[in-house]
Write a structure and sequence with these properties.
The protein folds into two domains: about 230 residues, 3-Layer(aba) Sandwich (Rossmann fold); about 270 residues, UDP-N-acetylmuramoyl-L-alanine:D-glutamate ligase. Helix content is about 40%, strand content about 15%. The strands form two sheets. It has an eleven-stranded mixed beta sheet with strand order 1-9-18-17-16-15-14-13-10-11-12, sandwiched between helices. A seven-stranded parallel beta sheet has the order 4-3-2-5-6-7-8, with helices on one face. The mean pLDDT is about 95.
Length: about 500
């Protein structure tokens, strides 16, 4: 399982490793790893391949200098754009500079660059590069890039060649995935080779757009120096034990009941999407419960049972409350009843807005014996936290953790790199999915899918992990088959989820 580490944890591991290794060993290993990653991205013959290496003033720049020397030795034509430190460099960075100067690399003359977009752009765009290696700034950047650095980054982002970031794309916060600064910029890499351990910011918020394909080089650091991780990348291994083949001697009662509560006037499609997803994900019986007058049936899915929500026994099913629920007094009363039930509960959409606006609902939710699953998008999370969307997106991991702790719930903070957080503080970041999911109704499908897994006996945590992974994988498969991302509809996900789930059971089921 791919573990994720904060910048503070990476610093501690690095410090412990440096204490038992020869001076400069980690930088040399990082440079070699960066060069190896670059060589994999270059044409089969590296002779005369044109590589631009950006070496910043800190130790990330030292990694870049080491990589540049290795690339030149391998036959590439390497140009270094070198920004020396203002003060005394570290000993290992000084050694890396000497190694690069002793190689066949060419150091570009930046004396005439005045920091303008025109002069910097002319330098970068003046050659048909095969690859750019970004070693401007690593995990320690705290201020937004400005002046010559900003112009340089903007110029690199205009290039059509591949870009390899060393450790983290310059300008991206390794902890949060946000671009540093309110009006900051970051290198848009096609690939990132990250050192020591993987970082959460490479996989959520802006990270997936700016980091590209991520590979991890642990720099041969002894495993004993790595602390237990509280964050991971989502993986089938985290929930595979619940992927069980079905027994011949089973019936619809063996696979649980799901009741989706919502469907206020004008929003009746939302609970139908959730209910259809629950049915196709394997629940034995699925009810679509309507706040207002119920539909006589779902003509497109007659297996669903459409009922009025007011007189349904809510204790008899796993509850998915919120899709199209509205904000009426009837909706609020149903939510009070749902939270008071002892069974599994998922709250989504309008249910989350009602909880955010009603302190008594928040208190009741936090006091449930069985933690609920909450599936907010950033705006809903902002309402629950009484913050702005910008503040939530600035640190998605922190926002999800705070919600999970304060509401005693498993929280699924949706978005690019969905963050799943437990009340214990454990976090998983999901890397399946794509922009096809940015359309109405996909959240309803996710809610129904997760409710279905819980109805089939999956614990809340594993159900959330499995549902988010499957939801994204279905979108990935559909896009790979040409059905998106533009114009993909939420309903198309449902049969793809069923296929993905059955294949997973075949491969991983016990």
């Amino acid at each position: 399982m791919n573990r994720l580490y904060s910048v503070a944890e990476i610093r501690a591991i690095e410090h412990a490793a440096a204490a038992v290794l020869p001076d400069g060993a980690l930088m040399q290993r990082a440079g070699q790893s960066g060069a190896n990653a670059a060589l994999d991205m270059l044409p089969f013959s590296t002779n005369h391949a044109k590589v631009l290496v950006l070496a910043g003033p800190g130790n990330n720049g030292g990694d870049a200098l080491e990589a540049a020397a290795h690339l030149a030795h391998a036959g590439a034509t390497v140009t270094i754009l070198h920004y020396p430190p203002l003060g005394e460099p570290s000993a290992e960075r000084a050694t890396a500079l000497q190694r690069a100067q002793a190689s066949d690399v060419r150091f570009a003359d930046i004396a005439d660059i005045d920091g303008s977009a025109e002069s910097t752009g002319a330098l970068v765009a003046g050659t048909d590069w095969n690859l750019v290696v970004d070693g401007l700034f690593g995990i320690g950047l705290k201020r937004p890039l400005g002046g010559a650095m900003r112009a340089l980054v903007e110029s690199v982002n205009q290039l059509t060649c591949q870009v390899l970031a060393l450790d983290v794309p310059s300008g991206l916060d390794a902890d949060t995935g946000a671009i540093v600064g309110p009006d900051g910029v970051a290198i848009r890499a096609t690939h990132t080779i990250t050192f020591i351990g993987d970082k959460p910011g490479l996989h959520t918020c802006e990270g997936r757009d700016y980091a590209g394909l991520v590979d991890v080089s642990r720099l041969e650091i002894d495993a004993s120096l790595f602390p237990p991780a509280s964050m991971h990348v989502n993986d089938v291994k985290l929930f595979a034990r619940h992927l069980r083949p079905r027994q011949h001697s089973s019936h619809k009662g063996s696979y649980g009941n799901v009741a989706v509560i919502g469907g206020a006037h004008g929003m009746r499609g939302a609970p139908l999407l959730a209910a259809r997803a629950a049915l196709h994900a394997g629940a034995g019986r699925v009810y679509a419960l309507f706040v207002d007058e119920p539909l006589p049936c779902d003509a497109g899915q007659p297996e669903l049972m459409c009922r009025g929500a007011g007189d349904f026994d809510l204790e008899s099913a796993t509850l998915v409350v919120g899709p199209g629920l509205g904000a009426s007094s009837s909706a609020a009363d149903l939510l009070v009843r749902a939270i008071a039930c002892e069974g599994a509960l998922l709250a989504d959409a309008d249910a989350l807005n009602l909880i955010a606006a009603t302190p008594s609902l928040r208190q009741a939710l936090a006091q449930r014996k069985q933690p609920a699953v909450l599936t907010p998008h950033p705006l809903e999370a902002a309402r629950l936290l009484e913050r702005s969307v910008g503040e939530v997106q600035a640190d998605r991991v922190l926002a999800a953790r705070e919600l999970a702790a304060s509401l005693n719930a498993v929280v699924v903070l949706k978005g690019s790199g969905t963050v799943i957080a437990a009340p214990t503080g454990a976090v998983v970041i999901n890397t399946t999915g794509n922009p096809a999911l940015a359309t109405a109704g996909t959240g309803d499908v996710l809610a129904g899918l997760c409710g279905s897994l819980m109805a089939q006996g999956w614990p809340q945590w594993e159900a959330a992990l499995g549902a988010v992974w499957l939801h994204g994988m279905a979108a990935d498969v559909l896009v790979a088959d040409g059905a998106g991302p533009i114009g993909l509809t939420a309903g198309e996900l449902i049969p793809a989820i069923r296929v993905a789930l059955n294949r997973m059971v075949q491969h991983h089921g016990r």
